[in-house]
Amino acid sequence: MNITRGKIQSAQKVVIYGPEGIGKSTFAAHFPDPLFIDTEGSTKNMDVARMDKPTSWTMLKNQIEYVKNNAVCKTLVIDTIDWAEQLCINDICSLYGKKGIEDFGYGNGYVYEKEEFGR
Question: Which residue numbers in the chain have pLDDT < 70?
Fold first, then answer.
């Protein structure tokens, strides 16, 4: 039987939600050693470390994998997640030859998106 006490170090997932322009990116810039994956170009006027704007879902996944494997920062910031979601949706639609997520039929496209985005 193993008994442990105290805090256990682990990665944290944080979602910051708020209206445009309220300071979410500025707030995230104060996290420990942040690196931004700026999906919409909202950090142009900020003095932060950032990766190239992803142009596809595959590129975004590759960027995340690179950060995980190379420990280039302490905090990875995906800014914003709704633009990242759109990359995911575009990838799914392209994969299945659909013009939009609604073309899958009632709710079905969103099931594909939820599964892919969760990975």
Answer: none
